[in-house]
Amino acid sequence: MASLICTSTISTPTSTAHISSSQDTYSTLVASLTVATAAIALTASWRFMLWRGRVYAKRLHQDVAKADWKDGTPLIDCPNDKLHQSIVESARRRGTATLQSVPMFLSDQNESDIADSFYQSSSSGGVSADDGKSPDNVEAVGCNLSPTRMAEQVGGISKHKHPVMTMKPHFLLKPLRLHTIRKRESKDGIKYVTKTYRGIRELAFYESIQSASDLASTDELLADLYRFIYKLDTRGSVLRILTLCSSIHETTNSCGHSLDTLPLLVAFFLGDPSTVRMIKSYVQSCCNHLEEMKSLGRLAVFTSPYYGLFDLNDSNGDTATQQPYLLLRDLTAPFDRPNVIDIKMGTQTYEPTAPLSKQHREFNKYPQQSDIGFRIVAMRMYSFGEDKYQYRDKSFGTSLQSRRDIVDALTMFFCGAFGTSLLLSRLIDELNEIKIWFEEQNASLAFYASSILIIYEGSPTNTLIDPSLKMIDFAHVCRKKGGDKGYLRGIENLICILSEIQSKG
To answer: Where are the beta strands (DSSP E) in 282-387?
Structure first.
């Protein structure tokens, strides 16, 4: 019995040590399993984040590919109704703010004195009709509450088109068909429907020019983005760059998503090749948009000042736009007897994506335009001796078969000028400025079916007013790599012809 007790006493420490060792082994195993599980979960999380980063980067890349530089594509995503509504609302707010800032007066009140105070000056050097007055300058003058049909309209006159209106003394209202549904039937008897967006595209063009002036320090932004693309900046700037690109794409009405930055950053910092490539493509697209906006900002001086969208049926505050008009400066307002000519520019007046029937129809209107680069749409001239206007419509312009015919037609238009040589010299200077823009600053836009509008004073009593020359009609502006060589040819030939007329005295 004693020996059993002794044996039992002696074996107890060994058993305790064995049990303790087993517990340590179990704890180690649990810890190892916990670490392994955490590592697996962490690896899975990182892989999931990497996958999400790739997916999001691919989505950005695909959106950029849709919105980016392809010949024949418009400035905006045409079928995007949400984007349309955003552009219309922005333009509508702009127009409302402009008109609210201008004192209104009734149509039966005398407006001549108010107009004179705005456009005339006692300065011996005269007043320029194209001095680029901002909406703030417009506040000094009242505006006619009742829009009336514009008597000086020369182009775009047709039975199926609404006329251009004016709100005297300084606003022009150009009718807009934001979108048009056309039903056609193919040769096989299959009916199909197409939707055109001429109005919304022209509105978007003017809004883009306005947005360009709102983008401050464009050169500095471009420098930051190019440093990132060409690896001249640290990775720490990627979040700032992505946020900047998102805001720019949203401002320029192109692709825009709320940034899911964490997965993108994970994939980027892990050096995932496809993510890095697609992010750089996204940033490059942003650079392209900024370059285009910068170019458009410099084009603004050659276009009529833009004040937004005006709706004639907006009296009840209805959000639906029923009768929209583009609100622009009335370029004829400073003149007593404005002589006006509309010249359609470019060697091609149809878009590359236009149906063949449309292309043939446009080409057959005036085949000579493909060579000379412009055609006379219409012109309105004041005869001082007879105290009445003479009008030449589009049939006159298309009847000009040779260069000599065109020279004679333009000579006839400018023969009513008082000081023809000085007038032509100023117009040639303006055309040379536009020519420089097309040569040096336009690398991505083609201006199909766009025109140049020239106005000069036909009365000898108001000869101090400078002539006006502006680019108009931007419903068919498309992207085109290398710019618009056809428009440039038209400008060069027009300059040559005006110089020829000037040299003959």
So the answer is: 306-311, 324-329, 338-345, 374-383
